[in-house]
Amino acid sequence: MANFQKLTPRSEDYSKWYNELVVKADLAEQSAVRGCMVIKPYGYAIWEKIQAELDYRFKQTGHVNAYFPLLIPKSFFSKEAEHIEGFAKESAVVTHHRLMKDPNGKGIVVDPDSKLEEELIIRPTSETIIWSTYKNWISSYRDLPILCNQWANVMRWEMRTRLFLRTAEFLWQEGHTAHATKEEAIEEAEKMLNVYAEFAENVMALPVVKGTKSPNERFAGALETYCIEAMMQDGKALQAGTSHFLGQNFAKSFDVQFLSKENKYEYVWATSWGVSTRLMGALIMTHSDDNGLVLPPHLAPIQVVIVPIFKKQEDLNQLLPVLQPLYDKLAAKGIRVKMDTSDKQTPGFKFADYELRGVPVRLAMGARDLANSTIEIARRDTLEKQTLPIEGIDEYIATLLEQIQKNVYQKALNYRLENTREVNSYDEFKEEIKKGGFLLCHWDGTKETEEKIKEETKATIRCIPFADNIIAKEHINVFEEGKCMVTGKPSKQRVIFAIAY
Amino acid sequence: MANFQKLTPRSEDYSKWYNELVVKADLAEQSAVRGCMVIKPYGYAIWEKIQAELDYRFKQTGHVNAYFPLLIPKSFFSKEAEHIEGFAKESAVVTHHRLMKDPNGKGIVVDPDSKLEEELIIRPTSETIIWSTYKNWISSYRDLPILCNQWANVMRWEMRTRLFLRTAEFLWQEGHTAHATKEEAIEEAEKMLNVYAEFAENVMALPVVKGTKSPNERFAGALETYCIEAMMQDGKALQAGTSHFLGQNFAKSFDVQFLSKENKYEYVWATSWGVSTRLMGALIMTHSDDNGLVLPPHLAPIQVVIVPIFKKQEDLNQLLPVLQPLYDKLAAKGIRVKMDTSDKQTPGFKFADYELRGVPVRLAMGARDLANSTIEIARRDTLEKQTLPIEGIDEYIATLLEQIQKNVYQKALNYRLENTREVNSYDEFKEEIKKGGFLLCHWDGTKETEEKIKEETKATIRCIPFADNIIAKEHINVFEEGKCMVTGKPSKQRVIFAIAY
């Protein structure tokens, strides 16, 4: 049951607001295991919607699902040098396979005789185990492409964790594809970036900038990492999804070659791409307010809640002959609607609870409305209320849900555009970065400059944006040439710097 | 790509037939990690259908999904005495959280400084971590019932593994519910058994016997285990799903009490219930034949395949104006249909491939059929072929799919009934059990007798059947009283003995 002590306002402590909201809206909570979360039923219902929408898009673009082992032999993991470098420090290691009674009578202990010959790592990502499998699946160009996706749990032993944003265990999907040519692999990596962006914008109402990562921020083992970056309400950046062009790195590490049409052995080209329960964090931090969660209708487990206002059962009995047909009409339109006739809570409690949970539209009807043939409609996004004739209200609500979807997107986009600024000198940068937001700057393309900036300001390059998306207000020319704000060396375009989650 | 070396016939080596079929039909394969399988895309597509059908039924009966941690602290795991006894010997144990470069230059090793204070067990089942969580969710009768399900991977370090049937890692769902009264918990456990049975029979076409387990075969920590048992084509039994009434055992171990309506603190009553990727094994072994997989239409990823017979593109171009409208009509009826216009394989190769993969209906059309306005229809279950006028064929196929669904069920049920026999003396039992099948016998209800029989014959009590299901042919009276075949002591009803997977 929700707890109605008020949320800490965002303006007071954004981080505390987030932590409280996640727990109070019944989305997730810390478990007894360090860094691992419990995703509660309401939070999981949103994740199921995210999964269904993405899975549909993956299948529409020709992908199939499969399942690969949770555990990866340590030796596999070490085969790709950058990859092991990237994940070694956060690996959960299985070393034994049996427990026994303590011979000294002190409960249950690990049986030392059950030590594994080779340690197994709980997957932090599955490139290695999958490419060791693909070796058996691929011999000729006829076996290509392979377009597999996996829905799975993964584990990265993070030292500092936060619900949804950074947890030791998280849920995700990971696509792993194998191609005959470099061009086809790059096309795939770009295609999936576009699938993610379309999903983020149309379903999650999350405006994102598409682009590539700088070499420092690339996935461990990738030649190119494509990303979608979003801005949270505190001006920080959040990486919402990545798609990697892996070149032939994993094919070479696991010796995966194919006989080409020209009868020559060649290494296979690879991509991988993933989004995770981190998206739940992005969803919450982009739209929600001091009253609680704000959900875009396309993701809301309950889109419309109907709350009859009554004290006695007979009052309810008078309302239901009007409300039940409305419920049926909305349900028939495919709207996810709930009728709350419980007498355990007051209407005021229910209103606050549905507000906290982000239900997009709330309908309320009492005796006076009944007499007037009207109904009260409250929008969660704007908190506006209006009373309208009940006649034709189902059509109005169907339209309203789409309006709300657009409005929460537009609001988030406006916020991002207002907080995306052009910066031309490093001195200015050091001041501006303290205010948050995306800073569009010229950079000389070197690791050294990027590292210097990170060290001195904590800001990183979030994204080298593509031309085919909305990045900033029109007066900022992102794609003109210029000079690096730190070194003065030439730069082909502005890149996005920000402090990131 | 499928491999058309013929399968070993079932009559020659049933076990070998199964192992070959799983791999050749592209369902699953062994991974590089001992006992862990890769579920290949075709196998996973069937599992997704199983998931969707079950998930729908769980939600219809008021359950919600959630997600709990993969790792369980060793101390939690030890709190319920029988539970730890049941799972200790097959526990994968995480002891460290970091890898490092070997200081002696020998690759990557486990960092000894990253040893965990308390070892973590990869969940073999989640009662303990879930009940430690429910403690925070439950304080009053108003918080009950809790009706959660989880879709997850689990791990049991089995020494002898077989694809789908017994693997170290497997996928499953586990329901965990909490109730205010004993009666309500028992009702829930029984309800979910009925959900499983209805699903098994109507979707998987898998005839099952519903009943309870004997004390020896109960889940570790349960007061009662309900089960559905199926018979495979080699006469062995396979446990297809279980539902447990856990009493207050886990509530007591984790101190989960609630304030009742009468204002008294009471321990919460629990159930858990699960089915796993083992169902894939049951599906394969129940219906398939020496030509490959036979899928019931309700689970088939492809229900109907259309194979145009052509050599040149122009032949195909003549067929498509007839076949494409047929494809569209079938798809419009919600039938999962595939048109195979590939020119990479011969029609003969395609026929054998779809047969191996168990596609229920295959349609083929060549030049002669086109001239005659006919089409060839092949049923996978009976291997019958017939040529029919193409006019009205879409209606015919919709009906045929339901006929096939019923036929594969009836065939499996007939097999089971023919191999379910009454046995009245232990001498007869020792002979009959060698022939396989279900043996209906009187038993005195003691562990000692059950263990003696198991030791001497390897047979176990699979199920103490309920009266409300088809158990045997009518002449066998299961519910008359009698005397135990071993000890001569009184027995209230016959129970099912069999050799089990």
Helix % of chain A is 25-40%
CATH class category label of the largest domain in chain A: Alpha Beta
In the residues of chain A, how many domains can be counted? Answer: 3
Largest chain-chain contact?
A: A-B, 66 and 66 residues
Q: Which overall shape of chain A is indicated by the principal axes computed on the Cα atoms?
A: globular
Q: In this structure, how is the largest beta sheet of chain A organized?
A: 11 strands, mixed
Q: Based on the structure given, which CATH architecture of the largest domain in chain A is correct?
A: 2-Layer Sandwich
Per CATH, what is the topology of the largest domain in chain A?
Answer: BirA Bifunctional Protein, domain 2
CATH superfamily of the largest domain in chain A: Bira Bifunctional Protein, Domain 2
Task: Count the DSSP helices of chain A.
Answer: 14
Q: How confident is the prediction overall: mean pLDDT of chain A?
A: 96
Number of strands of chain A: 27
Beta-strand residue percentage of chain A: 25-35%
Distance between the termini of chain A: 30 Å
- Briefly note the structural class of the backbone of chain A: alpha+beta
* Oligomeric organization of the protein chains: homodimer
Could you tell me the radius of gyration of chain A in angstroms? Answer: 26 Å
Blueprint (SSEs and pairs):
The structure is a homodimer of 501-residue chains.
Chain A: H1 14-24, E1 28-30, E2 37-39, H2 41-60, E3 64-65, E4 71-73, H3 74-77, H4 81-87, E5 93-96, E6 99-101, E7 108-110, E8 115-122, H5 127-137, E9 146-155, E10 169-179, H6 182-202, E11 209-212, E12 224-231, E13 237-247, H7 249-253, E14 257-259, E15 265-267, E16 269-276, H8 278-287, E17 304-308, H9 313-332, E18 337-339, H10 347-356, E19 361-365, H11 367-372, E20 374-379, E21 385-389, H12 393-418, E22 420-422, H13 426-432, E23 438-442, H14 447-457, E24 460-465, E25 482-483, E26 490-491, E27 494-498
Parallel strand pairs in A: 3-9, 17-18, 17-19, 22-23
Antiparallel strand pairs in A: 1-2, 4-8, 5-8, 6-7, 9-10, 10-16, 11-12, 11-24, 12-13, 13-16, 14-15, 19-20, 20-21, 23-27, 24-27, 25-26
Helix pairs in contact in A: 2-6
